[in-house]
Design goal:
Elements: H1 11-16, H2 21-33, H3 35-42, E1 56-59, E2 66-69, E3 74-75, H4 77-81, H5 86-89, E4 93-98, E5 105-109, H6 110-126, E6 134-138, H7 143-155, E7 158-161, H8 168-177, E8 182-186, E9 189-191, E10 194-196, H9 198-207, E11 216-220, E12 234-236, H10 237-242, E13 253-254, E14 258-264, E15 272-277, H11 279-292, E16 300-303, H12 310-322, E17 326-330, H13 341-349, E18 353-356, H14 358-365, E19 382-386, H15 392-402, E20 409-412, E21 446-449, E22 455-456, E23 460-466, E24 476-477, H16 481-489, E25 496-504, E26 510-515, E27 519-522, E28 525-528, H17 529-537, E29 542-552, E30 556-565, H18 573-586, E31 595-598, H19 612-619, H20 636-643
Helix pairs in contact: 2-3, 6-7, 8-9, 11-12, 14-15
Bound molecules: 5'-O-[(S)-ethoxy(hydroxy)phosphoryl]adenosine.
């Protein structure tokens, strides 16, 4: 192994940084020693309609599990993102919209955004949306998506954003699970020069017999495409907004009232609606946004995520807007019109912070250093990554080429469930090691446990758990609290189990090694193997399917599928295409299998359980490390699979 490279805190950056290492150490110690005092103090960063008198009321004790923060306080999320900035920052740019086409961009001030959100909040009310109702948002990356989310928050409705890349089937399942009677969409989305038929997808999703009646579908005009119209259900955003009043006082919400839900994949079953509440979530996301990105007034901040993922919720919308920041909404993709786009956008808007996914960095790196030609990126002072482990080569490239060897990189580890960043460097405080998410944020107590749940000390490797609650933590799975307890608190009693593996080095730095459960991370998108398998077996020629991840140079993980056909079915190229199509239809293009191997049989234990460990090794071309196969019902199956291993 080569000598581990360490990047000490950047000297230029140190001069402007909010805090240094000594301050981090002191604040961290305080946050663990007395969480009530620490979070009590930092909760004041928000505007409260009714101040809280209680701060932390949480227990991970399985039978009494309870997570409450600031439980007697009242506030409104939209008021914290908008109203309170009007006096000082009314004319400041809140949102910079950068369109798919480089010629299109638009600035929206805090005052304008406040007005638009208030109007749309009144529109939602006029459609019959009440406090506590679930509103599904299936939108492209445009200003109106932010407006829709904040308008829900303003009246106390729970938004459920569904990524625009999900298929009608996947959308329908989420509308149904959330018992959502309202959908907000656009005629079409535009990404990388291609159109996405969002409204048509909504129409299809609502045809399913299981989906409850939806009262209204609000359609934002993006491309003026010809779309089907269902009178009495479908309404035009622009028409409703024309006459809407901009006077809409924000609804006082209890700190523990739901703010939003967001579906994410687990190792088993259907996607779960992760529920986040109002007070703790806003304290935590705004505070992490400030310290992790060293946010200071007038920084221009760009997170390239999509609103359809948690990163878009916490670090495009809520965290930055609570802090009164200027945040970018990017409609496009890194390589359209060409691979210099990120650099072009950075130069155009003089962006200071760029926060993106390792998969995007790897895709650009594959284009060569020249891909940034013609751009200077000299406004950047911090780079960030999120969503998957970053390999040191990609880290170095990001640092050297995009950051001109002059920007600290914050490799932020967190999850949909955690609401905000848990393990991360702070740019003025933490020496960096490429590939390590480094150290815990304030209030976070990570621990490494072995498979029996014993806490391991010092330099070690095992499963990552968190020992105590933090304000941004999810509170439940929508409609299934028992599953919430089971999934996160039953594996290692008394702790929150992350599902990730981790290594801790001699300096106490954490290195996330990837999921230890049956969750895939493909281009930073989370997918359950069970979901992809259930899509595959919905095809009538498939008897059985097993899905595993394998190392993929750009995507991080690719999807490798083993399929057993029903008797008489022929394994043809045509059928292979059909199966790919089936998965795209059931879930969406993001779940397209990369490799399909026809498998006459699958390795199973005598009790019939598929041995994924073995299938993962075969997919990764590591069949010399299969381990013990003696417990298999039919060990011959393994040789057969190795012999006919598919090419990647
Ligand atoms: C992975 C995204 C390594 C991890 C915010 C986690 C990471 C899952 C990192 C959550 C990172 C996220 N280094 N792995 N910096 N960030 N992950 O819910 O496996 O979409 O459990 O949230 O992504 O994905 P999710």
């Amino acid at each position: 192994m080569t000598q581990q490279q360490v990047y000490p805190v950047n000297e230029t950056f140190k001069k402007r940084a909010l805090i240094d290492r000594a301050q981090y150490d002191a604040m961290y110690a305080e946050s663990i020693r007395d969480p009530d005092a620490f979070w009590g103090k930092h909760g004041k960063r928000l505007d409260w309609m009714k101040p809280y008198t209680k701060v932390k009321n949480t227990t991970y004790d399985y039978d009494n599990l309870s997570i409450k923060w600031y439980e007697d306080g009242e506030l409104n999320a939209a008021a914290n993102c908008l109203d309170r900035h009007l006096e000082k920052r009314g004319d400041k740019t809140a949102l910079i919209f950068e369109g798919d086409e480089p010629s299109v961009s638009r600035h929206v001030s805090y005052r304008e955004l406040h007005e638009e959100v208030s109007k749309f909040a009144n529109v939602l009310k006029s459609l019959g949306v009440n406090k506590g109702d679930v509103v599904t948002i299936y939108m492209p990356m445009i200003v109106e998506t932010a407006v829709a989310m904040l308008a829900c928050a303003r009246i106390g409705a729970i938004h459920s954003v569904v990524f625009g890349g999900f298929s009608p089937e996947a959308l329908g399942a989420r509308i149904e699970n959330g018992k959502s009677r309202f959908v907000i969409t656009a005629d079409e989305g535009v990404r990388g020069g291609r159109k996405i038929p969002l409204k048509a997808n909504v129409d299809k999703s609502l045809e399913g017999s299981n989906v409850p009646a939806v009262d209204s579908v609000v359609v934002v005009t993006r491309t003026h495409a010809d779309i089907d119209w269902k009178d009495g259900r479908d309404v035009r955003y622009e028409e409703l907004m024309k006459d809407a009043s901009s006077d809409c006082p924000p609804e006082p919400m209890n700190a523990e009232d739901p703010l939003f839900m967001l579906y994410t994949s687990g190792s088993t079953g259907t996607p779960k609606g992760v529920l986040h509440t109002t007070g703790g979530y806003l304290v935590y996301t705004s505070m992490t946004h400030e310290y992790v990105f060293d946010y200071q007034e007038n920084d221009v901040y760009w997170c390239t995520a999509d609103f359809g993922w948690i990163t878009g919720h916490s670090y495009i919308l809520y965290g930055p807007l609570v802090n009164g920041a200027t945040t970018v909404i990017f409609e496009g993709v890194p390589n359209y019109p060409d691979a210099s786009r990120f650099g072009q956008v950075v130069d155009k808007h003089r962006i200071n912070v760029l926060y993106t996914a390792p998969t995007a960095v790897r895709a650009l790196m594959a284009q060569g250093d020249d891909c940034m030609a013609g751009t200077t990126r000299d406004s950047l002072h911090i780079l960030g990554t999120v969503g998957e482990p970053i390999n040191p080569e990609a880290w170095e490239w990001y640092h050297r080429v995009i950051g001109n060897s002059n920007c600290p990189i914050v490799d932020t580890w967190w999850q949909t469930e955690t609401g905000g960043i848990l393990i991360t460097p702070l740019p003025g405080a933490t020496d960096l090691k490429p590939g390590s998410a480094t150290l815990p944020f304030f209030g976070i107590q990570p621990a490494v446990v072995d498979s029996d749940g014993n806490v391991l000390e010092g330099k070690t490797e095992g499963n990552l758990v968190i020992l105590d609650s933090w304000p941004g933590q999810m509170r439940t799975i929508f409609g299934d609290h028992e599953r919430f307890k089971q999934t996160y608190f039953s594996t290692y009693k008394g702790t929150y189990f992350t599902g990730d593996g981790v290594r801790r080095d001699e300096d106490g730095y954490y290195w996330i090694t990837g999921r230890v459960d049956d969750v895939l991370n493909v281009s930073g998108h989370r997918l359950g193997t069970a979901e992809v398998e259930s899509a595959l077996v919905s095809h009538d020629k498939v008897a059985e399917a097993a899905v595993v991840g394998y190392p993929h140079e750009i995507k991080g993980q690719g999807i490798y599928v083993y399929v057993t056909l029903v008797g008489g079915a022929e394994p043809t190229e045509e059928l292979r295409q059909e199966l790919v199509q089936t998965v795209r239809q059931e879930i969406g293009p993001l779940a397209s299998p990369d490799v399909i191997q026809w498998a006459p049989g699958l390795p199973k234990t005598r009790s019939g359980k598929i041995m994924r460990r073995i299938l993962r090794k075969i997919a990764a071309n590591e069949h010399d490390q299969l381990g013990d196969t003696s417990t298999l019902a039919d060990p011959g199956v393994v040789d057969e699979l190795i012999e006919h291993r598919a090419f990647q």
